[in-house]
Each structure stands twice: as structure tokens, then as C-alpha cells.
Design a protein that fits this description.
By secondary structure, the chain is mostly beta strands. Helix content is 7%, strand content 52%.
């Protein structure tokens, strides 16, 4: 998984990764997996739904690990990031736990996904497969 930050560096404009820079991710959902372990090609295709993310570092170390403000479709929450390129985790205003991450697949394709876990555990964690462009 250490390859992933390097790969993201290669595909992300450099100003986006500057220390303290706010990142804007414009995404569209393309599939919904009813469980986290589901393979992306076996997930149900869905109508493209826009997802916008603004990721602003609050207090991070040199590698970007630390606190972030994540705004997802206009709703803001404080969360944590493991690096400047994620994954990013936060709890929304309903208490649900969300994770935005990019994963390098065996075919070297970059897979963006949003994990959503209900606060009360009443439903399994869902995984939304996204097409994303980092625009800032």
C-alpha cells in the first residue's frame, strides 16, 4: 500500500498536495457494494450521483497525518487523515462513520471509494465506488 501515495503524487497536481493546501475532489458514484468485501466488478451499478469533497488540513505532521476538516456535499465534520492523500475518516452529523480512500488494484487501476458505516450498526457498512478528479 506504500505505492499508493506515490501513485497519487503522480496523478495529482502539485499545488493540491502542498502542506496546508485544501483539496477539492469532484466525484461521481458509479457502483454501490452492499458490503465492504465486495469486488468492484460485482457491485451494483447505480445512476451517477455527484459527490464533492473539500479536504482541509487542520493540524498535520510532515507526511500529512493528523486532523482534517472534511466537507462532503456541503456537510462539514472534523476527522483524521493518514497522509495528505488519505485515507480520510470522519463522523457525520448522524454519528455515521465515513472513510474516503483510494486503493491501487491488482490491475494498477486507481479505485476511489467511500465507506459508510451506520452509527448504530443497524446496517452493514456500504461501499460506494467513485470516479474522482482532484481539481484543487
Amino acid at each position: 500500500m506504500r505505492i499508493l501515495p506515490g501513485l497519487l503524487l503522480a496523478v495529482t497536481p502539485l499545488p493540491c498536495l502542498a502542506e496546508g493546501a485544501v483539496q477539492i475532489w469532484d466525484c461521481h458514484a458509479k457502483a454501490l457494494c452492499p458490503d465492504v468485501a465486495g469486488q468492484p466488478d460485482k457491485c451494483g451499478k447505480i445512476e451517477s450521483v455527484p459527490h464533492s469533497f473539500e479536504i482541509a488540513p487542520l493540524k498535520t505532521d510532515a507526511e500529512g497525518q493528523g486532523g482534517y476538516r472534511v466537507t462532503h456535499n456541503g456537510m462539514s465534520a472534523t476527522g483524521e487523515g493518514q497522509s495528505f492523500t488519505g485515507p480520510f475518516e470522519w463522523t457525520d452529523d448522524t454519528g455515521a462513520r465515513d472513510t474516503l480512500r483510494a486503493e491501487l488494484r491488482p490491475d494498477n487501476a486507481l479505485l476511489f471509494e467511500l465507506l459508510h458505516a451506520a452509527a448504530d450498526g443497524s446496517a452493514p457498512t456500504t461501499r460506494t465506488i467513485l470516479d474522482c478528479e482532484v481539481t484543487q
